[in-house]
Write a structure and sequence with these properties.
single chain
Length: 301
């Protein structure tokens, strides 16, 4: 088993999360609340009401936990790819086919979703608490929570377990699987394709800037494909905070479409794409750099 891929993924995931978290908060609020007219309205409202703190609500847990998810994702991907090459071609040293990369990516998406689901649920519940960090004396916003239900990630976890049980932590897991399994497969295929295009002649891999661009393009590709199911996932995860509106993924899709039309499936797409490029570019660039460092350190030992 390739353990260094788990370590490299952990480092890359944690650092990249900090870069994209403020935009993730805005994306979640636009997808799940109906009080904002657009991205800038949401940004300005968040800042006026909650200041800079509002953009980083619930970040403590994700920085640590997304690092773990990234570790599971990259570790599962690399080990699945190694197994597939060994099984299909007789040697893991041979260049994997696009199908190998896609299947290994799907396996990574399935494994990552199991770890990510409870973490993402807690994050989204906290991000949607729009109470100010300091006493707020401005105009109230209709439809926003005025008092915090959760005092922090641990309190949120305990409350969900008490009110919704263990299965409550996996609310929206079906939508998450429908999003992550195929999209992670295409994510790694996209990175593979862009990496090859950006590799200088006579070299095996792109330089650091090439990895950054290839990762950014792969991340943008992922979110263009994943956003419709991401909206459904976020809505189902928020469903447990009040009266339950949806009885499944299909019901969530049909209700959302009837009430808001086709545009509902693309809420937050622009933000996802803007956030995806730097976050995923950093993720792959850091992952590849740490991987090379760990391999060199391992050879020295």
């Amino acid at each position: 088993m390739h353990f260094i891929d788990f370590i490299a993924g952990w480092v890359a995931g944690g650092l990249a999360t900090v870069v994209g978290y403020p935009l993730d908060t805005i994306k979640v609020r636009i997808q799940t609340q109906h009080v904002y007219s657009g991205v800038w309205h949401c940004i300005l409202s968040t800042y006026r009401r909650e200041k800079v703190y509002g953009f980083y609500k619930g970040m403590a847990l994700p920085v640590l936990s997304v690092a773990i998810c990234s570790s599971v994702c990259f570790g599962t991907y690399r080990n699945s790819l190694h197994f597939l090459c060994q099984f299909r071609h007789g040697s893991s040293a041979l260049k994997p086919s696009r199908l190998d990369v896609f299947v290994a990516g799907c396996a990574a998406g399935a494994a990552e979703a199991m770890v990510f689901a409870p973490i993402d649920l807690i994050k989204i519940r906290q991000q949607n608490q729009t109470h100010p960090h300091q006493p707020y004396h401005g105009q109230s916003s209709h439809g926003l929570l005025t008092m915090p239900k959760y005092r922090g990630p641990i309190h949120c976890l305990i409350t969900i377990l008490k009110e919704e049980g263990t299965l409550g932590l996996y609310r929206g897991i079906t939508a998450l699987w429908l999003r992550d399994i195929p999209c992670f497969g295409l994510y790694f295929v996209a990175y593979s394709v862009f990496s090859e295009q950006l590799t200088p002649q006579g070299q095996h891999k792109p330089d650091w800037l090439g990895k950054l661009v290839a990762g950014g393009c792969a991340g943008t590709t992922y979110w263009i494909l994943a956003t419709p199911m991401d909206v459904m996932k976020s809505r189902m995860q928020m469903d447990g905070m009040g009266q339950q509106k949806y009885n499944g993924v299909l019901n969530c899709i049909t209700q959302s479409f009837r009430q808001e039309g086709m545009r509902v499936f693309f809420k937050g797409l622009s933000l996802n794409c803007v956030r995806a490029f730097p976050v995923n570019g950093m993720t792959f660039a850091i992952y590849e750099t740490v991987l090379v460092f760990l391999k060199k350190a391992n050879l020295k030992d």
